[in-house]
Write a structure and sequence with these properties.
Largest sheet of chain A: 7 strands, mixed
Number of strands of chain A: 11
Number of strands of chain B: 11
Radius of gyration of chain A: 13 Å
Distance between the termini of chain B: 36 Å
Structural class of chain B: mainly beta
Radius of gyration of chain B: 13 Å
Strand content of chain B: over 45%
Strand content of chain A: over 45%
Shape of chain B: globular
Helix content of chain B: under 10%
Number of helices of chain B: 0
Shape of chain A: globular
Largest sheet of chain B: 6 strands, mixed
Structural class of chain A: mainly beta
Order of helices and strands of chain A: EEEEEEEEEEE
Number of helices of chain A: 0
Oligomer: heterodimer
């Protein structure tokens, strides 16, 4: 399978705990995006990378959110001191290669904060 | 004004008819425009993208772009029950950030 993968698929955590999600993009893709999606809404941009460089981070994000893509391959998204409002689907997408405009999504990580 | 606006629906269309989905955007500098389909509980999947004014056809799908009116649409011909889903319009800005609308729920009536 050469698609975008995300791990874990589901995460239940207690308020105040830290969580980390991983995304493995399609291998030849140099761009990687993180989104958050809640019920009835479209994906909300969080941040994106071109290779290992983080090009933009949404102003909507607090300092509790951080993302890395250390070698320009996989990426991690960490949420510190989780709050109930962080409960959402976290989606990763990648693009690049011969079709730079085509963005492909992973299956997402569903986070539930209790 | 939201950057990307869509009617949330639901839009109900009889099987075999043409479904027309619309989207407007606010940033005149936006360069590329995308339509995604999202089934309940699944992640979005790209249907097609367009970046030049006019029409772009791919099978039963036609995307239409009018940059002067800041309007993009998706037509689905010969609608099938399997087309029932939420359709997301997305816009790539000059800074390459991709902004999504809330989506339009489409229901194809058998």
């Amino acid at each position: 399978d050469t698609g975008v993968s995300q791990d874990p698929r589901h995460k239940i955590t207690k308020r105040g705990q830290n969580v980390t999600f991983r995304c493995d993009p399609i291998s030849e893709h140099n761009r990687l995006y993180w989104y958050r999606q809640t019920l009835g809404q479209g994906p909300e941009f969080l941040t994106y990378f071109q290779n290992e460089a983080q090009l933009e981070k949404s102003r909507l994000l607090s300092d509790r959110f951080s993302a890395e893509r250390p070698k320009g391959s996989f990426s991690t998204l960490e949420i510190q001191r989780t709050e109930q409002g962080d409960s959402a689907m976290y989606l990763c997408a990648s693009s690049g290669g011969d079709t730079p405009l085509e963005q492909y999504f992973g299956p997402g990580t569903r986070l539930t904060v209790t | 004004q939201k950057e990307v606006e869509q009617n949330s629906g639901p839009l109900s269309v009889p099987e075999g008819a043409i479904a027309s989905l619309n989207c407007t955007y606010s940033d005149r500098g936006s360069q590329s425009f995308f339509w995604y389909r999202q089934y309940s509980g699944k992640s979005p999947e790209l249907i097609m993208f367009i970046y030049s004014n006019g029409d772009k056809e791919d099978g039963r799908f036609t995307a239409q772009l009018n940059k002067a009116s800041q309007y993009v649409s998706l037509l689905i011909r010969d609608s099938q029950p399997s087309d029932s889903a939420t359709y997301l319009c997305a816009v790539m800005r000059r800074d390459d950030k991709i902004i999504f609308g809330k989506g339009t729920r489409l229901h194809i009536l058998p």
